[in-house]
Design brief:
Length: 59
């Protein structure tokens, strides 16, 4: 139940605050692994929350 709540909250924030940096809600290793799992090049800059949530949903 807690995991479902967090995913729902992340989806809402990703939609409403798409320019929010992923570092505010994820550790740097957590958001970088989403790129690795989706076989995308890892960016040097902190990615946006919207991008990370979309990558999680694709995997």
């Amino acid at each position: 139940m807690v995991i479902a709540w967090r995913l729902n909250r992340l989806m809402q924030l990703g939609r409403n605050l798409s320019d929010l940096l992923a570092d505010l809600l994820f550790e740097s290793d957590e958001w970088r692994v989403t790129f690795i799992l989706n076989k995308k090049p890892v960016t040097r800059q902190t990615s946006t929350l919207n991008t990370v949530v979309r990558l999680i949903a694709q995997h």
